[in-house]
């Protein structure tokens, strides 16, 4: 792994990052007033459903009717270039950056004063409509939703957790959070509620980009995503004590919403547009009473657009967890033959298609790795494709070539049945699905590639230029093929 980035390129807060995006022409500012209940979300949908990935950009709605706070979306995951800019790395270095961050976590440091607490609104003064919280599926979602980092703490170990759990605005001072059983936010809340105590909870809005992108990392229970964000930044994240609850919150966030979940209090949450492409049914979830809203002066509000994929949600979950999974396989499970992991960007993070590159090794190695990943929690990939490391796993044309040239369906497939996957739309009542592992690595000797060797191809490229033919960038798949020809 080569050098990843210079320290100066990391972004310590969201507002500086927005300026960088603007310079790179990856941001559009909308100055016309918008209605947060109906307008920003469908515009964000057009970014993902109308534009090819390379043409997408983040959006800043500068004037949101009824609020003085601008609404930002898409600035972390419009496409891989935007995501990479958020981390201050080149797009091809994203996986390496997460592997390094996971292997060198940095504990946060406590500070007394914090920008996120320049303004404090607490107790009876709290009004959630103060924030420009949008409706993400107008006409179908039950209410506006916070779609940002949810921060909780284990009562006994005092270790905090960050995860994104959609949160429905119930009224001016309470919400219903989708803390589902099995999720770490739910497990943390239980450690308080089982003792009859109110569980502290906070929503972190427009934090430094690395904090947001670490928030969706699939880490084991007891690992704090904020340390991985520190590893990504190369320095400790500054954290400050929340004003009204027992939590430490990122000091350089734009806005923090603080609250507590009272034991036994639940309400109906949903319907809400799910990340897999359907409306989720309503269900009972814990209510949280909002105890404070704190923010920077002139803050920025941030919300992830999710729902029908592709979306910002699918992009960030896939891009973060490909690196996290690569680290798990290579360094925790000793699968050193695994050289790279790509999670398809157009479905819901760890639920879609993972493509794993492996160095040629012992017979059966690729299928074994595939079965291993199929069994790993909390991932629930439906498809796992294993290819040799001479295939560009981010290039579907190249992966398809491997599937056609090196994959024998009857011999190289493993089906894993009776798998539980709550969000799989195909499973309906039973919640059971199955998975497919495809080994598209080469078995045996297929002979040489039918391309001239590197010298002949390089000479032809010189001639191409001499002839004034249109310039192009050599695709990675072509480079890999020519190198091995
Ligand atoms: C916009 C968005 C909304 C999400 N909503 C939920 C949700 O409501 N419930 C959930 O369990 N996961 C949701 N996720 C996925 C989790 O944030 C992600 O899997 C995270 O790693 C969970 O953290 P945990 O492993 O610490 O529980 C969402 C992700 C995004 C980006």
Strand and helix map with partners:
Blueprint: H1 14-23, E1 27-30, H2 40-50, E2 58-61, E3 71-73, H3 80-87, H4 94-103, E4 109-111, E5 119-122, E6 145-146, E7 149-153, E8 160-164, E9 167-171, E10 174-177, H5 184-193, E11 199-205, H6 209-214, H7 225-233, E12 238-241, E13 248-250, E14 255-269, E15 272-273, E16 279-280, E17 283-295, E18 301-302, H8 312-332, E19 338-343, E20 353-358, H9 365-375, E21 383-388, H10 396-406, E22 413-420, E23 432-439, H11 454-466, H12 476-483
Parallel strand pairs: 1-2, 3-18, 4-12, 20-21, 21-23
Antiparallel strand pairs: 2-3, 5-17, 6-9, 7-8, 7-11, 9-10, 10-17, 11-14, 12-13, 14-17, 15-16, 19-20, 22-23
Bound molecules: flavin mononucleotide.
The site of flavin mononucleotide has 20 residues, from strand 8, helix 5 and helix 8.
Brief overview:
This protein has 485 residues and is α+β, with helices and mostly antiparallel strands. Helix content is 26%, strand content 25%. Strands 5, 6, 7, 8, 9, 10, 11, 14 and 17 form a nine-stranded antiparallel sheet that branches.
What does this structure look like?
There is one protein chain. The chain is α+β, with helices and mostly antiparallel strands and 485 residues long. It folds into 3 domains: 296 residues, Roll (Pnp Oxidase, Chain A); 107 residues, UbiD C-terminal domain-like (3-Layer(aba) Sandwich); 30 residues. The protein contains 12 helices and 23 strands. The radius of gyration is 23 Å and the shape is globular. The N terminus is likely disordered. Bound molecules: flavin mononucleotide.
């Amino acid at each position: 792994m080569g050098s990843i980035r210079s320290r100066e390129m990391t972004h310590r807060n969201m507002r500086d990052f927005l300026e960088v995006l603007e310079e790179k022409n990856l941001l559009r500012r909308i100055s016309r007033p918008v209605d947060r209940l109906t307008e920003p979300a469908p515009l964000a949908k057009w970014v993902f459903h109308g534009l090819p990935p390379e043409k997408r950009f983040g959006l800043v709605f500068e004037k949101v009717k009824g609020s003085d706070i601008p609404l930002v979306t898409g600035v972390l995951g419009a496409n891989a270039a935007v995501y990479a800019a958020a981390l201050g790395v080149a797009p091809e270095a994203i996986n390496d950056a997460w592997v390094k961050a996971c292997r060198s976590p940095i504990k946060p440091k406590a500070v007394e004063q914090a920008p996120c607490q320049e303004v404090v609104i607490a107790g009876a003064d709290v009004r959630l409509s103060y924030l420009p919280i949008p409706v993400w599926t107008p006409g179908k979602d039950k209410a506006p939703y916070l779609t940002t980092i949810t921060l909780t703490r284990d009562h006994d170990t005092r270790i905090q957790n960050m995860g994104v759990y959609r949160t429905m605005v119930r009224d001016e001072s309470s919400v219903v959070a989708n803390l589902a059983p099995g999720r770490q936010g739910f497990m943390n809340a239980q450690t308080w509620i089982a003792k009859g105590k109110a569980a502290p909870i906070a929503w972190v809005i427009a934090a430094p980009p690395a904090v947001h992108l670490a928030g969706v990392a699939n880490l084991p229970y007891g690992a704090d995503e904020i340390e991985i964000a520190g590893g990504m930044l190369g320095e400790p994240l500054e954290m400050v004590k929340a004003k009204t609850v027992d939590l430490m919150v990122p000091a350089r966030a734009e806005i923090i919403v603080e609250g507590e979940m009272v034991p036994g209090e639940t309400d109906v949450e949903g319907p809400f547009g799910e990340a897999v492409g359907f409306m989720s049914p309503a269900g009972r979830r814990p209510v949280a009473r909002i105890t404070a809203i704190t923010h920077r002066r002139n803050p920025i509000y941030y919300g992830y657009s999710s729902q029908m994929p592709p979306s910002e949600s699918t992009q960030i979950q896939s891009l973060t967890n490909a690196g996290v999974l690569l680290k798990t396989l290579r360094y925790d499970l000793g699968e050193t033959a695994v050289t790279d992991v790509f999670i398809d960007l157009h479905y819901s993070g760890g639920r879609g298609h993972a493509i794993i590159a492996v160095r040629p090794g012992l017979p059966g190695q690729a299928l074994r790795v595939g079965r291993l990943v199929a069994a790993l929690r909390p991932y629930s990939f439906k498809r796992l494709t294993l290819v040799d490391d001479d295939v560009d796993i981010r290039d579907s044309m190249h992966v398809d070539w491997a599937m056609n040239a090196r994959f024998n369906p009857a011999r190289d497939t493993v089906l894993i049945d009776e798998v539980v996957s709550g969000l799989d739309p195909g499973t309906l009542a039973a919640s059971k699905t199955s998975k497919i592992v495809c080994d598209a690595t080469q078995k045996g000797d297929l002979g040489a590639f039918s391309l001239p060797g590197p010298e002949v191809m390089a000479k032809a490229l010189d001639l191409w230029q001499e002839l004034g033919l249109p310039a192009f960038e050599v695709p990675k798949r072509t480079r890999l093929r020519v190198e091995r020809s």
